[in-house]
Amino acid sequence: MIQDARVLQDDYLPREIVHRHEEMSQLATALEPVVEGDRPQHALLTGPSGSGKTCIARATLDRLQEQVLDVHTAHVDCWLHPNDFRILYKLLESLGTTYDIHRSTPLDELLERLREIDKPYLVVLDEADQIDDPDLLRRLYSISGLTMILITNHERDLFRPLDERLQSRLRSSDTIEFDSYRRDELVSILSDRAAWGLTDGALTTDQRQRIAETACGNARDAISILRSAARHAERKGSDRIRDSDIETAIPAARAELRQKSLDRLTTDQLAVYDVLRECGELMPKELLARYEERVDDPKSMRTVRKYLRKLEQYNLVESSGHGPSRTYSAVS
DNA sequence: CATCCACGGGAAAAACAGGGTC
DNA sequence: GACCCTGTTTTTCCCGTGGATG
């Protein structure tokens, strides 16, 4: 039933981008000067997750590279590589100049090497608000051949840690705002993927509607649900997706997402999360006490607070209230 | 208004990683 | 392989801020 599994993957980039022509041409215009060999404006892409930011950035750079030979591009997911070294390493890696770089190479040298490149360099920093050290943005900003395309869910998360000067400079870059996909847009995206990747008639119109409705405007979620349902149906040897496959896929897709976050936690962080999962809502003091009896060599309160902040970012834990009446609970 | 907590920034210390050397 | 060296990452400690509560 699955004819081409690639089109159901997260990172699949369709040849033809639908529903985001406006945003794509805005970005293309912002980057246009590179065709003439000039330095383009930096760009800022904001909007909720699954609204097509990453997709548009990648597609635009692909097009540009077809037109212009003398340009380097790179795409770094700052969620996966949050620290300076890894980001810079990734950038140099896509230039193919990492041959003699090791962990003890000073950051300044990495930056220096970026400065030396002769062609324009277009850099997509995906999930840019996840970058640990905001100073990195300032340093990248100061490299004249380098143009940043910053992607973030919320502009304020990105700007909050930056100093005034850099904030105002970045605000002057081209900002492109993305909205969540509308229901009918998601339906048409799902239809395309089904047409490319599945046999005819494997996914009914009602099923498309159902997935689109559940995904709440998030294309990534919609495609994960489709992927999971298709796999499920195929495992059973069915020649089309049944409604029950979709109902199974909806929680499965969420679980998959959560598992990805969970895999990246340390044992102590996981212990904190487990305590909250088992005990439900807890006050900080109580949470700490239970965590401490759970592990052999507990970390300090301050460290646990850092963990909690991280868990909140991963959307595994949520908190409510302020001051003494604060409570934490695991996201169901 | 005083007090109690919790929060989170920053600095310093400790643990860690990975290359180079013998 | 044992060891040092360097820079990174994690953890801890200290402390000011500020909301909630009596």
List the helices and strands and how they pair.
Elements: H1 21-31, E1 43-46, H2 53-67, E2 72-77, H3 84-95, H4 107-116, E3 121-126, H5 135-141, E4 146-152, H6 155-159, H7 164-171, E5 174-177, H8 183-197, H9 205-215, H10 219-235, H11 243-262, H12 267-279, H13 284-294, H14 301-313, E6 317-320, E7 327-330
Parallel strand pairs: 1-4, 1-5, 2-3, 3-4
Antiparallel strand pairs: 6-7
Helix pairs in contact: 1-2, 3-4, 8-9, 8-10, 9-10, 10-11, 12-13
This protein binds a DNA duplex (22 and 22 nucleotides) through helix 14.
Structure write-up:
By secondary structure, the chain is of the alpha/beta class. The chain has three domains: 20-177, Rossmann fold (3-Layer(aba) Sandwich), CATH 3.40.50.300; 183-262, Helicase, Ruva Protein, domain 3; 265-330, Orthogonal Bundle (Arc Repressor Mutant, subunit A), CATH 1.10.10.10. Helices cover 51% and strands 11% of the residues. It is built from 14 helices and seven strands. The chain has helices spanning 21-31, 53-67, 84-95, 107-116, 135-141, 155-159, 164-171, 183-197, 205-215, 219-235, 243-262, 267-279, 284-294, 301-313, and strands at residues 43-46, 72-77, 121-126, 146-152, 174-177, 317-320, 327-330. It has a five-stranded parallel beta sheet, sandwiched between helices. Helix 3 (84-95) packs parallel to helix 4, helix 8 runs parallel beside helix 10 and helix 10 (219-235) packs across helix 11 (243-262). 34% of the residues are buried. The model has no long low-confidence stretch (mean pLDDT 88). The chain binds a DNA duplex (22 and 22 nucleotides) through residues 83-85, 102-107, 284-285, 299-303, 305-306, 309, 321-326.
